[in-house]
């Protein structure tokens, strides 16, 4: 029996877990793109306002800092899904594809565990920052807000890496 035969036909015959992780990563990356676009508009408006003699948007640099943290966290799952991390295959390039697939699976499991540990500690950091009540200087934004998308990104990346570990590699390639 072929592996693809036991999965439903939706999602191009891919396993449902990969269909959902693909959707999750793209929704989070889309949210990250919206954040970057919104902050770009805000900075543009602030610069134009300053150039025409009006007071710019107070704390616009704080928005840039916070939005970079937001976007970075939200793009992590898509990077994991597409295996966009740095890979050094100098030592495995000569090995048979079956061996390299198993080595890749081991590294995917290591990524999954690493993301899960990172997510765990970021949740604790988020709770500590929230309890401490630290805020940005000009806009008085709670600093723990920056942890939320990072937790989502690390958690989503962990789920995706675990899914890539348990599903055969022919289904985890980009685009199919």
TrEMBL record:
**Cellular compartments annotated:** Cell inner membrane; Cell membrane
Q: Which InterPro entries match?
A: DctQ
Q: List UniProt keywords, sorted A-Z.
A: Cell inner membrane, Cell membrane, Membrane, Transmembrane, Transmembrane helix, Transport
Domain named Tripartite ATP-independent periplasmic transporters DctQ component: residues: 40-165
The GO terms describing molecular function are:
transmembrane transporter activity
Ranges annotated as spanning the membrane:
27-49, 61-86, 106-123, 144-167
Superkingdom in the source lineage: Bacteria
Query: May I have one GO cellular component term?
Result: plasma membrane
Provide the topology term for how it sits in the membrane.
Multi-pass membrane protein
Its chief place of residence is membrane
| Record-stated family | Belongs to the TRAP transporter small permease family.
Protein's job: Part of the tripartite ATP-independent periplasmic (TRAP) transport system.
Oligomeric state and partners?
A: The complex comprises the extracytoplasmic solute receptor protein and the two transmembrane proteins.
What is the protein's name according to its record? TRAP transporter small permease protein
What species was this sequence derived from? Primorskyibacter sedentarius
Q: What is the lineage of its organism?
A: Bacteria, Pseudomonadati, Pseudomonadota, Alphaproteobacteria, Rhodobacterales
